[in-house]
Amino acid sequence: MDERYIITAVAKSLKVLKLFKSSSAHYTLAELTQLSGMNKSNVLRILNTLESENFLYFDSYSKTYILGSHFNSIMASFSYSDLKNLIHEDLVVAAKKSNVLIHFTIKERDALVMLERVFPGNINSLIFASNEGEEVPLHATGAGKIIAA
After folding, report:
1. Can you tell me the distance from the alpha carbon of 90 to that of 118, in angstroms, rounded to the nearest whole number?
2. CB distance 119 to 95 below 8 Å
3. C-beta neighbour count of 11 within 10 angstroms
4. How many Cβ atoms sit within 10 Å of the Cβ of residue 3?
5. What pLDDT is stored for residue 36 in this prediction?
6. pTM higher than 0.70
7. 53: left (phi over 0), alpha (psi -120 to 50) or beta
8. What confidence tens digit (pLDDT) does each residue in 138-147 have?
C-alpha cells in the first residue's frame, strides 16, 4: 500500500472505532486515550467528530462513549448483505450434510473476518471467542490455518 494515499486523520479515527469490538463496549475518554496510544486532544476531537455524525454516542451520566445509531445501521446492513444471502442456503445444506459447524469467512490482510456461522442440526449453541463481523488472526482459527498454508 502506498503510504502517500493514506489520510492520517481517517486512519486515526478508524483506529478509535476499532476499539469498539462489541456492540456493548463503552469507554471513557481516558480509556480510549490509553488504548489508542494517541494524545487526549486528538482522541477528543475524533470522538466529537464521530459523535456529530452519529457513529458514537456520549452518555453524559456515565461519561462513556458507545456505538451510535449510524454505526449500528451500517452493521445491520452488513449482516444482511447480498453475499450472505446468496450463500446462506448452501451453508445450511453443508452444515446438515457434514454435521459440522460451518464458518463463512473472508481474508482481510493477516486476519479473517467471520461473516456467518451455521450450526448443524444437532448443535444449536456454543460459546465462541469471536463474533460475526470481528477480525480474528489467521493463526487462531482452523479456517485461517488452511488459508495460510
Report:
1. 10
2. yes
3. 9
4. 6
5. 96
6. no
7. alpha
8. 888 888 888 8
Which DSSP state fits 140? G
d(CA 122, CA 117): 14
Looking at domain 80-148, what is its CATH homologous superfamily?
A: GAF domain (3.30.450.40)
CA distance 100 to 148: 22
Q: Is the dihedral of CA 49, 66, 10, 8 positive or negative?
A: positive
Look-up of cell digits 445491520: 76
DSSP 5: G
Cα 91 from chain centroid? 21
Distance separating alpha carbons of residues 19 and 3, to the nearest angstrom = 23
Best CA proximity match to 24, nearest among 46, 57, 51:
57
Q: How far apart are CA 46 and CA 52, in angstroms?
A: 10
CB of 104 within 8 A of CB of 87? yes
3-74 to CATH, choices 1.10.10.10, 3.40.50.720, 3.40.50.1110, 1.10.3720.10: 1.10.10.10
8 Å CB contact between 148 and 128: no
